[in-house]
């Protein structure tokens, strides 16, 4: 079964992770632009980050047979930093045009401040202007209120809900999100947010329509294999393989395919590995023999 982890911060992960993900059936990933764990001190570090998302990280994924796409945005935490927020907004039009950028994100609310809502609305407008789908982060604290506010803003701005994916849902927020007409993402985490068994129960209860699963793995306590692990638990719970595949492959392919840029080859096969390739003169190898798969 093919798996698409549509929310994972691979910049924070190792090549061992890429190898294990490929072995577990992950064929494609999306890396949303986000917070680096400490505040960026100037716009330039943001720009280099965007460049790595469309450049080096995409190359690194392909070296292990995984398609890499990204979504680009000012993240909600740094929307509160006036020293860089405006500068990042000026960069966005350049990076929203990149061929591997398949959406605006992750935007959303964190502390639910006025600045966050201002930049949220401005970036929804960018998504409309650039005809891109949107990936929305919901807050960890006061999640119900935050999710409702997000849905209210989405409705007020008038973006088509079918082009909006609200992420990090739980049992409480899922009915709200589905009722809004938006897509509902779930981040399966060790200990928090959502786990494999709870996710299987949600799919049994609500079905597969507009429902997706991701790992949201990053530099914190998280697990890049959570989507394949959830596939296993859903199987054990008696969910049909065709339904599982809808949730972990066809749904994210359809949703982000709305960008017109989700190039997965003719049949969604994984990219051919050629570790003799270089990126701007640099290799992922450290003297190992390159793996080179034969061309078809
Ligand atoms: Zn994230």
Topology record:
Elements (H helix, E strand, L loop, with lengths): L2 E3 L9 H9 L2 E7 L10 H12 L1 H7 L4 E6 L9 H14 L5 E8 L5 H16 L4 E4 L5 H15 L6 E3 L6 H8 L2 E5 L8 H11 L4 E4 L11 H11 L4 H17 L39
Parallel strand pairs: 1-2, 2-3, 3-4, 4-5, 5-6, 6-7, 7-8
The protein binds zinc ion.
The site of zinc ion has 6 residues, from loops.
In short:
The protein has helices at residues 15-23, 43-54, 56-62, 82-95, 114-129, 143-157, 173-180, 196-206, 226-236, 241-257, and strands at residues 3-5, 26-32, 67-72, 101-108, 134-137, 164-166, 183-187, 211-214. The protein is α/β, with parallel strands linked by helices. The longest helix is centred in the last third of the chain and has 17 residues, at 241-257.
What does this protein look like?
With 296 residues, this protein is of the alpha/beta class. It has a single domain (3-257), classed as TIM Barrel (Alpha-Beta Barrel). 41% of the residues lie in helices and 14% in strands. It has helices at 15-23, 43-54, 56-62, 82-95, 114-129, 143-157, 173-180, 196-206, 226-236, 241-257, and strands at 3-5, 26-32, 67-72, 101-108, 134-137, 164-166, 183-187, 211-214. The protein has an eight-stranded parallel sheet with strand order 1-2-3-4-5-6-7-8, sandwiched between helices. α8 crosses α9. It is globular. It starts with a strand and ends in a 39-residue tail after the last helix. The model has no long low-confidence stretch (mean pLDDT 96). The structure holds zinc ion. The site of zinc ion (ZN) has 6 residues, from loops.
């Amino acid at each position: 079964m093919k798996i698409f982890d549509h929310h994972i911060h691979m910049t924070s992960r190792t090549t061992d992770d890429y190898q294990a993900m490929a072995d577990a059936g992950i064929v494609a990933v999306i890396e949303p632009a986000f917070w680096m764990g400490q505040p960026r001190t100037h716009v330039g570090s943001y720009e280099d980050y965007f460049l790595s998302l469309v450049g080096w990280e995409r190359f690194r994924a392909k070296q292990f047979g995984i398609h890499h796409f990204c979504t680009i945005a000012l993240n909600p935490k740094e929307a509160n930093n006036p020293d860089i927020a405006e500068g990042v907004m000026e960069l966005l039009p350049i990076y929203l045009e990149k061929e591997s950028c398949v959406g605006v994100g992750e935007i959303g609310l964190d502390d639910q401040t006025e600045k966050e809502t201002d930049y949220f609305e401005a970036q929804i407008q960018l998504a409309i202007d650039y005809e891109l789908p949107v990936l929305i982060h919901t807050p960890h604290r006061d999640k119900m209120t935050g999710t409702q506010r997000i849905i209210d803003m989405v409705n007020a701005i008038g973006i088509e809900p079918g082009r909006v994916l609200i992420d990090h849902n739980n049992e409480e927020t899922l009915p709200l999100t589905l009722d809004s007409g938006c897509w509902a993402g779930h981040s399966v985490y060790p200990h928090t947010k959502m786990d494999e068994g709870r996710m299987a129960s949600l799919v049994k209860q609500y079905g597969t329509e507009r429902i997706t699963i991701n790992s949201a793995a990053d530099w914190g306590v998280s697990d890049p294999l959570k989507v394949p692990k959830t596939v296993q638990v859903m199987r054990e719970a008696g969910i049909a393989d065709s339904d599982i595949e809808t949730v972990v492959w066809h749904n994210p392919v359809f949703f982000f395919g709305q960008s017109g840029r989700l190039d997965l080859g003719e049949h969604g096969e994984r990219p051919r590995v050629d570790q003799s390739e270089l990126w701007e003169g640099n290799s992922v190898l450290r003297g190992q023999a390159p793996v080179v798969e034969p061309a078809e």
